[in-house]
Amino acid sequence: MQLAWGRAADARVAQLASHTAFAALVVGIAFGAILTRLPGTEALTFLTVLSLLGAAIFALARVGTRSHKTVLTDEAAYRAFFEHAIEGIFRTTPDGHYLDANPALARIYGYESAPALMAELTNIADQLYVDPSRRAAFQALMLANDQVSHFQSEIVRRDGAKIWISENARAVRDWTGQIICYEGTVEDVTQRHTAERELRAALRQTEEANRAKSAFLAAMSHELKTPLNAVLGFSEIIKDEMLGPITPAPYRGYAADIHTSGTRLLAIISDILDVARLSGGAITLNTRPCMAASLAEEAATMARLATKDVRSVAIDAPDSLPQVEADPQWLRQALANLLSNALKFTPEGGEITLTVTASVTGAMSFAVHDTGIGMDNDKISAALEPFRQLDRSLARRFEGAGLGLSIAKSLIELHGGELLIESAAGAGTTATLVLPPARTITRKALAGGALGR
After folding, report:
1. Is 96 helix (H, G, I), strand (E, B) or coil?
2. pLDDT tens per residue, range 392-414
3. Strands 352-358 and 314-316, how do they pair?
């Protein structure tokens, strides 16, 4: 028994001797002790596991502390941005109540503060928008797209003044997909909207003025042509002595001068009438297949008759060229205007050529080249404006109202083409009418009757 007792006593002593205390430290500061009765290696294993577990818990605690600080910092930064933003910022419920608003929004809407806005503005559709249906339109866009961009509406401020705002916002949905609120920004665009409205009004007035001008020019041109035709007819009878000899002889010269001046005036009136009709959109194309070579020959004849210039125009227009779908009257007129200019500004001994080519893309080009006086490259755009004479001295030397190029440009654009001009002072000019590929009739299309003619 003693021995047993002794062993028991030894065991109690051994158990007591195996009790071990370990200090628990956090950042070098002891906050307790861990006491274990495990003997030998078991105590060390337990201690290792416990140490690792403690380190993990401590690491998580530190991360949690940092995250909390970060959240607080981010929240402070967001609130600072929210409070000091120039644009209005809001969160509203679908039924039209404000959940949040910043001071800028309060200023835009005419309230003393954001709390005052949220307290008084409780029904956005009826209290804010001039047209209450704008709220429904806003919500419909949100439902379809989850966002709106540059949504402009007229609203009523707290003081009764009406302004225009532009909203950019998005829908916020819960986990079930239901929209719980809208959040976005508001900008006061009253000045921009007013400027745009005034600009539109000015454009309408300008268009109306242009239409009135065109109508006036058309009416006056028509009224002038009727009596002028009588003057031309009678002056021709007198100068040609159709009713018998006229004495004294100078009268015939006077009649010839009247007829020449009247013809010149009639050409100017006709040009003014064309400009008026083009500006007013009164000219419609009556297109049909046309032979390019025939158009070139006819235009050259028209130009020589108009300018009373007997010089020939060298024409390079092979019969093998494809036909073009165009209005022969107006395309011929555009070509004649270019040729008339070339004849007018090319001195005796100069050369004038009309070259017609088809490009690989199918575009058809009518290029009028002369070796006349030409013009500086920076004056070409001005030359295309109606009633523009680049040099007053030229206006005295060369007759005309400065409408030829402008009319040619408008007529070719009516066909979907363009007028290109290359020129240099003293080195001549090349003016080219370019018809788009769609105007060129291929042999296959012509054989198949694709144009329905």
Report:
1. coil
2. 555 445 555 668 888 889 899 99
3. parallel
